[in-house]
Model the fold of this input.
Amino acid sequence: MPQSVPSPTTPDPDAGADGPLDRLRRVMDDPARAEGPRHMRLRAALMDALEQGDWAPGDKLPSEGAIAQAVGVSLGTAQKVLTRLAGEQILVRRHGHGTFVTGDTSQSNRLMHFRFIGNDGVAMVPVYAEAIERSVTNERGPWSDHLHEAGAFIRIRRRINVDDAFDCISDFYIDAERFAPLLQTPFEQLHRITIRSLLVNQFNAPTFAYSQRVYATRFAAPVTTLMADNRQGDPTFGVVLEICSSSHHRQPVSFQNIFIPANVRKLELLSPRLLR
Done:
């Protein structure tokens, strides 16, 4: 059975020294901004943080409680400010999932294998990535066929919300022994990073090539449950995009399953290519 690695024991990178929450607190405490209601000061501080790029389009913000605690306001004040920013379409509030910066195409551009096309048939629609599980598993499947030298696997499961209309689910597998330090990466970082970039920067394991295939199937119960909130699409049936990635000397480096529900937006599949 998969063994979940609990995220609460890992530090929140937004809350570390000189992290976004620390900078947010300093702006709130600036004597030059001491006048006015605290909710207005928090709104201004958050707007400054977004303009400075502390949270980019598509990024998930810290929880209301974390923001309230970091800057010294009540939970109700933090909720009020985030709700108003959502009403101004600066943020997107997703019940049960958190608050995200309104997306442009920035996170869509990070998708190497697929993109969703808007109603105009040209523009890419915004996506919001949310890490929902990091676990170590011994389960066998197509990932173990590709990563054949690995005895156990780290699985990073992320929810990819598309235009706040439906979710896709991504399961990313890597060798648990080779990439064990990734289990210590603060869980919140998994919302925003491209995992392949992390493999390059921390482990010198670039993706040089990949192959992919697509097949239609009925989803297993865990995936269907995670898609239960979809306003569009059939959460029980769809296509699976299966990606086998290789590094130096064609050494297998990762395996990814992306579960895409049926009856949603037009899907553009990107051709496999050599990565540089």
